[in-house]
Amino acid sequence: MTIEPQENALQPEDRYKKLKADANRMADWRTRVKAIEELGALDHPHAVDVLMHRMQQDPVYRVQVAAYEQLKGLGEEVHKPKPSPEEPVKGLTKMLVRIKKSLPKDHTYEQFKDKLNKMRADVYDIYEGEKGDGFDAWLEAKWSDLRI
């Protein structure tokens, strides 16, 4: 397959668009981190805007830090974000209660976890990214504390 010169000229712009979309994919923090790393290496005038937005607005602290590191690497004067003391998702307990109520009374933690991931992949992803290796223990404790 031969690449036409016009296609080759559009390739960096297409790459930027894909990385921008990936950096804003809210249901997958790992994809956002990878896109941020690639945006930091991409020579595109709007890459800094995307990185700045992720650093300031992403609900997952790891993503914020990844964007900060890329911006620093690009020579931008930025300050490292601080972890937010607030819950990343407002109304989490109410949401978890609804999910628990939707399951049979004798459901397992694994069934609850799967349903959360299916119903609210964005919330699942945010907390998985925030809690890291402690995610399962944290979610199981939340699940067992829920009263319905």
Write up what this structure looks like.
It is a single chain. This protein has about 150 residues and is mainly alpha-helical. The protein folds into two domains: about 10-75, no CATH class; about 90-145, no CATH class. The protein has helices at about 5-25, 30-40, 45-55, 60-75, 90-100, 110-120, 120-130, 135-145. α1 packs across α2 and α3 runs antiparallel to α4. The radius of gyration is 19 Å and the shape is elongated. Pfam families: HEAT_2. This is Esterase. InterPro entries: ARM-like, ARM-type_fold. It comes from Paenibacillus algicola.
The overall pLDDT average reads: 90
Strand content: under 5%
Indicate how many domains the architecture comprises.
Answer: 2
Radius of gyration: 19 Å
Unreliable residue runs:
1-10
Count helical runs: 8
Organism: Paenibacillus algicola
InterPro entries: ARM-like (IPR011989), ARM-type_fold (IPR016024)
Protein name: Esterase
Pfam family, one: HEAT_2
SSE layout and pairing:
Blueprint (H helix, E strand, L loop, with lengths): L4 H19 L5 H13 L5 H11 L3 H13 L18 H10 L7 H11 L1 H11 L3 H11 L3
Helix pairs in contact: 1-2, 2-4, 3-4, 6-7
